[in-house]
Amino acid sequence: MGAQPSLDDQFEAIIRDRAIYPVFQPVVSIADGGVVGFEALARGPAGPYENAAALFEAAGRLGRFADLDWLCADMAGERFMATEFPDLALFVNLDPATMGGPFRQKLLDVLADVMSERQVVIEITERAVTQDPPALMDAVIASRKLSARVALDDVGVEPSSLAAMPLVNPDIIKIDRSVVQAHSPAWAVSHVVNAVLHEAARSGAQILAEGIEDEEHLEVARSLGATLAQGYLFGRPGDLPATVTPSKHVLARVTPRQVPEETPFEMLSRTDPVNPTTEPLLTAMTGHIENQALHTDDSAILVINVADVANLDDEARLRYGYITTRGVEVYVLGREVPPVPSGRVRGVPLDAGDPLVHERTALFIGSHHASGVFARETAAGFDAGICYDRERIVEATLPLVRRLHK
């Protein structure tokens, strides 16, 4: 009797033999109970990799995440295209890194085939917002170029990333089951709900409540402002049904954000006053923005451009490190800035030819409020201004996010 294949060999065989079985769970409109689409979920063959979590854990360990992501999307699309549901949407989970890796074109080809005839919603987990911002932005841009909608998944699992919702600008915001079923502390639930409602009102995004298992959960979903729902009350993951009752309601499509090529100073100086400023005064202005991050109880992002590592002294490193302990994501850009300047601060080195090396910037984005200082070097010091328009601050942050690297 031969030796049993190792777990790693079993996983490789699954990829080689395309032994992924997609199952589908309905997404419904709360207003009329009709189906708007199906979320595709992956299952492996009977054994240690039957569960999706085990599959993706092995894929991550073996460096095969993109392979598995593509295979799951391919199998789900193939199965969905065989149905008679031309007006329903296919919800597909994708890791942003897959959209930017070597499998990008293969994945886009698969999705393009599906989207030529059906609606597709690409779900991106909330955790990706802070783990790999540039891959996330690239995934959003690539998805929308293909006419796909974008859903931000698992919202509420990591409240620190709520402030990044306007950067993603999702068409659909999926509230995690822990919020709907109140497994989170009450203060965390209210915090998540307020941020989601604010973003939905701003952009016109739809709210989808996950984990709806009974009528009580459904009432909670309504109170959260959800118009879409998903959970065992409407159907467990399984084979696609032969017939469905489609909803009369269409899925939202928000206006996509354009990622500008300009610097924050070039963008913000067009609408906000700029005045000659000395370095000490600029430091005080920047400190005002940093203090907002330091004292916020909100989910927030702070992006600092110091231009050069010489402008990042020990006191600033300690201050930014402490701000991260408040649950704020902090990014520091500048020439020769190390990858980890302090604590959980993420450093982003700039090229010598980058126009940002002639600017200073402090941009703060909370769930509801934002502010920023922007400055450019002059022969006498700086030209500087301050902005409190949240939409303008978000727009000015986008070109900085695209410069972030893991």
Describe what you observe in this structure.
A hairpin with a 4-residue loop joins β14 and β15. The termini are far apart. This protein is 37% helix and 23% strand. With 406 residues, the protein is of the alpha/beta class. It has 2 domains: 223 residues, EAL domain (TIM Barrel, Alpha-Beta Barrel); 138 residues, Endonuclease, Chain A, CATH 3.30.870. The longest helix is centred in the middle third of the chain and has 18 residues. α2 packs antiparallel against α3. The protein contains 15 helices and 15 strands. The protein has an 8-stranded mixed barrel, surrounded by 4 helices. Strands 9-15-14-13-10-11-12 form a 7-stranded mixed sheet, with helices on both faces.
Can you tag this structure with a few keywords?
Endonuclease, Chain A, seven-stranded mixed beta sheet, 406 residues, alpha/beta, Cyclic-di-GMP_PDE-like, TIM Barrel, 15 helices, globular, 2 domains, 23% strand, EAL domain-containing protein, EAL_sf
Topology, please?
Layout (H helix, E strand, L loop, with lengths): L6 H11 L3 E9 L5 E9 L8 H10 L3 H17 L7 E5 L2 H5 L3 H12 L3 E7 L2 H4 L1 H13 L3 E7 L9 H4 L3 E4 L1 H4 L5 H18 L2 E4 L5 H9 L4 E2 L34 H5 L6 E3 L1 H17 L4 E9 L5 H11 L3 E8 L10 E4 L9 E8 L3 E8 L4 E6 L2 H12 L5
Parallel strand pairs: 2-3, 3-4, 4-5, 5-6, 6-7, 7-8, 10-11, 11-12
Antiparallel strand pairs: 1-2, 1-8, 9-15, 10-13, 13-14, 14-15
Helix pairs in contact: 2-3, 3-5
